[in-house]
Write a structure and sequence with these properties.
This protein is of the alpha+beta class. It contains three helices and six strands. It has one domain: Alpha-Beta Plaits (2-Layer Sandwich). 23% of the residues lie in helices and 27% in strands. Strands 4-1-5 form a three-stranded antiparallel beta sheet. Strands 2-3-6 form a three-stranded mixed beta sheet. Strand 2 and strand 3 form a beta hairpin. The longest helix is centred in the N-terminal third of the chain and has 11 residues.
């Protein structure tokens, strides 16, 4: 039986459901740094004012623990395997896509 690795997981967002509450940022910083400090979070919610959407962005250091998914009040985040993400992307409606990852400033 194949074990799932960090590389086979993808965090997906439904931007139509994301309210920009940033609870994911607080949960991540508490889980990874032991304090509620969004500046230390590995997920950041960016607001596109022109398109009226919130887009979470991941730091490359994210290990896909799923805490942000568990605590998202609107269920806008989901953690899926790579195969599911590929299938979702092929048939995706506008507004659902894998969350972009960015390099941290510390790298």
């Amino acid at each position: 039986m194949e074990t799932e690795t960090e590389l086979s997981k993808v965090l997906v967002v439904d931007v139509d459901s994301c309210t920009g509450c940033k609870i994911c940022e607080l949960v991540c910083s508490m889980e990874k740094q032991g304090e509620y400090n969004p500046k230390k979070s590995l997920i950041r919610v960016m607001r596109n004012k022109e398109a009226h959407v919130n887009i979470p962005v991941l730091d490359m250091k994210c290990d896909f623990c799923g805490e942000c998914v568990d605590w998202c009040p609107t269920k806008a985040l989901s953690l899926v395997n790579l195969g599911e993400a590929i299938a979702m992307r092929k048939g995706a409606k506008i507004g659902s896509f894998p969350i972009p990852q960015v390099c941290s400033a510390e790298a």
